[in-house]
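For the sake of clarity, the format in which proteins appear in this thesis is described at this point. Each number in the token line that follows is a code from a learned vocabulary of backbone shapes. One such record is shown here in full, so that the layout can be seen directly:
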Amino acid sequence: MKYRNENDSMGTVRVPEDAYYGSQTQRAVENFPISGLGFAPEFIHALALVKKCAARVNDTLGLLDAKLAPAIAHAAQEIMDGRFDDQFVVDIFQTGSGTSTNMNMNEVLASRANEILTGQRGGRSPVHPNDHVNLGQSSNDVIPSVIHIAALILINSRLIPALESIKQALGAKVIEFEDIQKLGRTHLQDAVPLTLGQEFSGYARQIELGIERIRAVAPRLAELALGGTAVGSGLNAHPDFAKSVIALIAEQTGLPFCEAVNHFEAQAAQDAAVETSGALKTLAVSLVKIANDVRWLASGPRSGIGEIIIPSLQPGSSIMPGKVNPVIPEAVIQVAAQVIGNDTTITMGGQAGNFELNVMLPVIAYNLLQSISILAAATEAFSTKCISGISANREACADYIEKSLALVTGLVPRIGYDKAAAIAKKAYDSGKTIRQVVLEDSVLPEGEIDDLLINPS
């Protein structure tokens, strides 16, 4: 491999000749050979958006040479378009402010801008990574802002549409199954009847509430720390820089970003990320409940509950021919477990707001964006590959109701609890149904039995 020399305040560093990044990035690569995990493209593209808007505003404010700003903005747009994703090489587990990744971006942008202007990649002239690309900024206000930007973009572009899709799919099943009586179950034991549509209405409402919870965090995510620079005081930033850059970001994304009400809070804490993760965790728990119910209701096909039938997608066993498993619900449950684990990490990260800066920003960013992304993907798969294709096994639903001892509950208003309990015990001991015992013992007129057992008022 061929190398070139790049200089910084600590000396000279050898950097791969074809790399767009420079000395500080290379030092970080050497210092943090930890996990091989990198920032999601959505984070990198949001960071490039900040730099693009900053260059344009600094140009307008007369702080940046009119020849340099367009080159920086052009390079930033190229990164936003995904052209240089392979140049962002710093491990997630790095300095807690994310400075290494901010400098990775600054160096790539300076290098590419210099190439645009001079034909020569790399270097610190005419475009300097700190003096020009990072003008009016600090890693300490940029990285918290990018966490919010990337998260809100992902929520609106991927997660909410996926949730709306599964809500619609579940709503369709509520209507499709509204007339199908089935056995209720509490404590994993037989309970009184309900309709399959009613059961699915509970799932639909869980998703609806999940959407409400996630939408509710948007105002806090929309607040950006930009303008606070190192500690929140705004040192070295033009008074109009933050509001102008944030207005441009809002215009570019179509999202209501605004300047943080208090820059010291915005940089010292990550409460909005913790709150968002909590809403995502709640959604994950909802999805586990729904996915597990679907698995159990579809269990069998001959020795399980089998009240619903889910789509068969792939062979389920390497040894048992003909076996088909509920693979999509299982994948959803695994994603939920990851999101719940991520929430613990984000919670711990939120506790690392020491004085004027949170120092677990990279790991918060990684886990938060992963949670949003995998929840979106899993929810979409659950909707299209499972929920939409569910059908009811009407015969199984009817058979379970007829055999259930819990049907006797419908008789209680007419004959009292104790007499009803005696009927249930007799049915259990004799292996007969509640209906058979009631008819044999002439407990009630035959014409009243169906209404009381299946549809009690």
Remarks:
- The chain has three domains: 3-135, 141-225+262-393, 404-454.
- The beta strands are 3-8, 11-16, 181-186, 189-195, 223-224, 258-259, 308-309, 353-354, 357-358, 391-392.
- Residues 139-176 form the longest helix (38 residues).
- Residues 12 and 142 are 27 Å apart (CA to CA).
